[in-house]
Specification:
Number of domains of chain B: 2
Oligomer: heterodimer
CATH architecture of chain A: Alpha-Beta Complex
Distance between the termini of chain B: 49 Å
Strand order of the largest sheet of chain A: 1-2-3
Number of strands of chain B: 13
CATH topology of chain A: Sufe protein. Chain: A
Number of helices of chain A: 5
CATH architecture of the largest domain in chain B: 3-Layer(aba) Sandwich
Number of helices of chain B: 12
Strand order of the largest sheet of chain B: 2-8-7-6-5-3-4
Shape of chain A: globular
Shape of chain B: globular
Distance between the termini of chain A: 25 Å
Largest interface: A-B, 35 and 29 residues
Strand content of chain A: 15-25%
CATH class of chain A: Alpha Beta
Helix content of chain A: 40-55%
Largest sheet of chain A: 3 strands, antiparallel
Order of helices and strands of chain A: HEEEHHHH
Largest sheet of chain B: 7 strands, mixed
Structural class of chain A: alpha+beta
């Protein structure tokens, strides 16, 4: 399978690999996927006093497209408010990375990871969580 | 010696042609173009002679009579012939066929077809070492079993099955025994008489010959095996496989077989040394690596490894200048990881983390060293990026985690 240049770039130079302290109240963590399915994503955000996402980190077990999707997600999260981040859609990731149909599930997983991390942050800080539609 | 990229390490998928094979074939694309079935002129006689010579060389590899070699388009066709041809011919004798769950798809899918025709098929599930033993076969046999089909060497994990023992068992019970020897023919010693093999499939392109040509060995005496033809036509190949013979391909397969016979022993020693060096380097430089399939009962040119916490396709992406194959789902159109590794009880997780390294006649020590070092670098880099590796380092038992699968 041929990868798009953008996927290759994120794979070779992943942005924001790493971990944040998950017990920190300003940090939201989302871990989605399962090892037997071949992909697990961990995505974390750190929110500053003004409600802006000041930092985002990821770790991913998965194919190149899964790594690229989560790497891109961390780039897009930084500087957004929690509510703005909620608007990130998997279709935007597909478009940006030129993912082929068999790799769309990687973008879905990335969107899932974002939303799970956002809700984790909300829950920790007594904010109402955003109801999610059923899983895929 | 300088390395030439990309490095080919997928010898179980196919092999490059040996230049000596190509040289032998060339005249048959040119002025020796005759049809081996033309009986009335020298063009035909010349082609027939070339085919007969090749048939002799191909038979010698497995100690068969040349008349027992039937030419096909490849091992997939040979496997189809063995299963469907025997089932059709012997259906009055019985209704049951035994094979294993980790055979090549040419066997599995032919067996599935037979099920739709009303046959019963037992698929033996070998344990973690990947080996199908004679005891497992014996347990699966029934009074109405007409055929056992067990591969000589597995294409994914390279393990060797005890073909002689299975052959002896089947002969004792009067059941026909077919072996798909696509990965074993010309690479490991096979003797159809000593091993009581009744039918055998092989392919040219796995032994440095051309693509599109294969053989099926069909025993002529004690017992005489009969097959219903799948392809009808001019009655070529004793009526078992009609169609004008691929003379140039057959000449190439014959030459390739001859070279395998001459060089088998030496080549196996060289490849075993290379493989063991490769394996030792990996085990020294990485903290967790598993060999898939039996450690020693395997093809000299195969090493199937799992690198926990790293997904196979991402590893292959990092090995961009090396041609290897992965049991992970993402590389194939299906979303299921390797049915071979799954069936061996490896678990989906390790199946997703597996890479098949295939070595062969043109693999050099420099290539082995390069690929071992590169694999180590990438596995380490990807583990640093892996949430699973991080969790394990924190002391989390991954099997106890409630995953949010999608």
């Amino acid at each position: 399978m041929a990868y798009s240049d953008k996927v290759v770039d994120h794979y070779n130079n992943p942005r924001n690999v790493g971990s944040l302290d998950k017990s920190d109240q300003t940090v939201g963590t989302g871990i989605v996927g399962a090892p037997e399915c071949g992909d697990v994503m961990k995505l974390q955000i750190k929110v500053d006093d003004g409600g802006l996402i000041e930092d985002a980190k990821f770790k991913t077990f998965g194919c190149g497209s899964a790594i690229a999707s989560s790497s891109l997600a961390t780039e897009w999260l930084k500087g957004k408010t929690v509510d703005e981040a909620e608007e990130i859609k998997n279709t935007q990731i597909v478009e940006e990375l030129n993912l082929p149909p068999v790799k769309i599930h990687c973008s879905v997983l990335a969107e899932d990871a974002i939303k799970t991390a956002l809700n984790d942050f909300r829950e920790k800080n007594g904010m109402p969580v955003v109801e999610r539609k059923g899983h895929h | 010696m300088s390395l030439k990229f990309p490095i080919y390490m997928d010898y179980q998928a196919t092999t490059p042609m040996d230049p000596r094979v190509l040289e032998e074939m060339n005249p048959y694309f040119d002025d020796k173009f005759g049809n081996a079935a033309s009986r009335n002129h020298s063009f035909g006689w010349e082609a027939e002679k070339a085919v007969d010579d090749a048939r002799e060389k191909l038979a010698a590899v497995i100690n068969a009579d040349p008349r027992e070699i039937i030419f096909t388009s490849g091992a997939t066709e040979s496997d189809n012939m063995a299963l469907k041809g025997v089932a059709e011919m012997y259906k009055k004798k019985g209704n049951h066929i035994v094979t294993s769950a980790i055979e090549h798809k040419a066997i599995i899918d032919s067996a599935k077809r037979l099920e739709t025709w009303g046959f019963d098929v037992t698929y033996i599930e070998p344990p973690e070492d990947g080996i199908t033993t004679a005891e497992m076969v014996e347990d699966a046999l029934r009074d109405d079993t007409i055929l056992v089909s067990i591969m000589a060497a597995n294409n994914e994990v390279g393990v060797l099955n005890p073909i002689a023992e299975i052959g002896a068992l089947c002969r004792g019970r009067g059941i026909l025994f077919h072996t798909d020897a696509t990965q074993g023919y010309g690479k490991i010693p096979i003797d159809v008489d000593e091993m009581n093999i009744d039918l055998l499939s092989a392919s040219a392109h796995k032994v440095y010959g051309p693509k599109g040509v294969g053989i099926i060995y069909v025993r002529r005496r004690r017992p005489r095996v009969r097959l219903s033809a799948i392809i009808d036509g001019g009655g070529h190949e004793r009526g078992m496989r009609s169609g004008t013979l691929n003379v140039s391909g057959i000449v190439g397969f014959g030459k390739a077989a001859e070279l395998c016979m001459e060089e088998m022993e030496e080549e196996n020693i060289r490849l075993t040394n290379l493989r063991d060096k490769f394996k030792a380097t990996m085990f020294e430089s990485l903290e967790e690596v598993y060999v898939n399939g039996h450690e020693t009962k395997r093809l000299s040119g195969n090493l199937n490894l799992s690198f926990p916490y790293v997904e196979g396709e991402s590893l292959i992406m990092g090995l961009s200048d090396v041609a290897v194959s992965s049991g992970s789902a993402c590389t194939s159109a299906s979303l299921e990881p390797s049915y071979v590794l799954k069936s061996m009880g490896r678990g989906d997780e390790l199946a997703h983390s597996s890479i098949r390294y295939g070595f062969g006649r043109f693999t050099t020590e420099e290539e082995i060293d390069y690929v071992a070092e590169k694999t180590t670098d990438i596995v380490n880099r990807l583990r640093e990026m892996s949430p699973l590796y991080e969790m394990v380092k924190e002391g989390v038992d991954l099997s106890k985690v409630e995953w949010q699968s999608h």
